[in-house]
Model the fold of this input.
Amino acid sequence: MADSVVRAQSIRPDSILNDVTIIVAPNPSQPTPTDQQSTDTTSQDNYGVQSIVITDSPLLTNADALLLAEYLLRADPNYWFTGLSINMHALTDAQRLQVAALEIGSFIGVTKTFKYGTPSSVRKNLYVEGIEHHITPQTHHIDLHFSPVGYSQPWNGVTPTLTWESVPAGLSWSNLIWTIL
Amino acid sequence: MTAYVTACTIKRGRDSQDAQFGAATCTIIIDDLLGQDKFSVANSASPYWNADRGRLGFEPRRQVRISRNGEYLFTGFIVGYDSQFGIDGHNIVTVRCADAFLNLSTTTINGFTPPAEKSGARVDRILGLPEVGYPSIPAPIIATGVANLSNLAIATQTPLAYFNNLIEEAEQGRLYIDRNGALNWEARTPNSTEASPTVLFNDSGTAIPYESLEVIYE
Done:
């Protein structure tokens, strides 16, 4: 079977997907492929079934398909910083250099502080997906567009060595659940 | 020619991880009253006139680079050169540019059967096809990739259509032309990492400040 058709998919890294099925196109390494499904029943109970099916994937084996299905699974809603705007003329020379050198795929950290409530600040680590420059003789504004690292890193304080005894104040059970998943 | 430019807009990459990659664009607006018609397509006295070809040197496929603080912000080619002649002599020139991504949508893969291989090897194979003839300078930067691809026949289509299909249904990675003009193929973004970013933004004055921040919750 020729891989001839561009199939539009809508897979947002920040949307709930709790039922992902990938089926590779039959090929000599996988002549009779089977559905490779990754599901999260707790998420389905909480938010309803939200599924996506990719058929005739150009992947080689069922194992490759299952790996992709597990990658695309998003069990819980979450919030992300999707973009920010920068005024280059408000930066120091050193900061301008850092921003000018940003590239698609660059790994950056963004912190937002809050006047009210808890926590007083939230940090997200993100990948740059898009960069826009709006330049005039007097101004230079940059818009950055992001994708998340993944829902498993809501805070920098969550590490593989973190234990229940060493959980810092303010880190809740639900946050740790995201990490474990 | 910066002295005659009144505005420049550059758009590279994509808005989000679920969007498809396309060619980066750059639009340059020139006030040719300041340039005293140096940028007129009819001015054979312009310092930019190409006497050998008998036309203005700013022609389609002419290379364009935009830089700031010693860093290129865009590297690409002219794809359109539009003039608006004002009755008052105030002529505005709009130079439309795109990056080398354009080559991926203006060539066609003749159907063939590749071997089973990683996505990076597949991208390299496609770029090296004679009918695609993707430029080797600057050299493409191609990651190995995570996805193992089958040896199914590839139908006749543009390289861009095929690569976007690979991203959506196999690799979930990135394809773009970097600031220096090199094609980049990147592997699937990890779902978690212990790496710490070196470029930090915040709104409290201890890192690079931002003006506004967009948040979605889904």
